[in-house]
Amino acid sequence: MVTGDLPATAEQVARVVGVDDLLARCAPAEKVARVRDESRRAVTVMVGDGVNDAPALAEAHVGVAMGATGASASADVADAVLTVDRLDRLADVVEIARYARRIASQSAVVGMGLAVVAMGFAAAGRLPPVAGAFLQEGIDVVVIVNALRALRGGLRRADVPPAQEEEAENEEEAEDEEEAEDHYSPRG
């Protein structure tokens, strides 16, 4: 983890996220150099939330901006933007991407496999051209229907769905704001 934050804050976040390599109080140039070095060794994901993170986000294989309170410069150069400032959503994004990729690969393999089998029958004279055309349309429909499974999202968590979770958070924040207004109200 490379951050411009103070060491105490950085250590706290690193502990929660499960990071064992930590570099705090980094200047933007140091972040870029570190991301560049890591990118030579492996696929690198950089998560940032401010203008100072934009160069490092651009340097990483995958740049992710935390967009709820972050600067637009980081969102502009990022490959993905999380609209809530919660790192657990990044794990959700990775899980959804893996799920979608797995479905896309399955669809491609199944579609091409069925088409090759159909072409074999056609080449052997066992499948007339018109029947082959209709069969190809059927294969396309099967592959498309399979690909539509990606719309389910692929999250395996059994907790509250993200939309309901965010609504609950927003309601809690509104209640907290109302309590604060009541407590500090000039009325009483």
UniProtKB/TrEMBL annotation:
Return the Acidic residues bias intervals: 164-181
Q: Which GO terms describe its molecular function?
A: ATP binding; ATP hydrolysis activity; cadmium ion transmembrane transporter activity
From the record, give the transmembrane residue ranges.
107-124
Read off the Pfam families from this record.
Answer: Hydrolase (PF00702)
GO cellular component entries:
membrane
Keyword tags: Membrane, Transmembrane, Transmembrane helix
Stretches the record annotates as Disordered? 156-188
Q: Which InterPro entries match?
A: Cation_Transport_ATPase_IB, HAD-like_sf, HAD_sf, P_typ_ATPase
Which SUPFAM superfamilies does the UniProt record give? HAD-like
Matches recorded under Gene3D superfamilies: HAD superfamily/HAD-like
Q: State the family named in the UniProt similarity comment for this chain.
A: Belongs to the cation transport ATPase (P-type) (TC 3.A.3) family. Type IB subfamily.
What is this protein identified as?
Answer: P-type E1-E2 ATPase
Tell me which species this is from.
Micromonospora olivasterospora
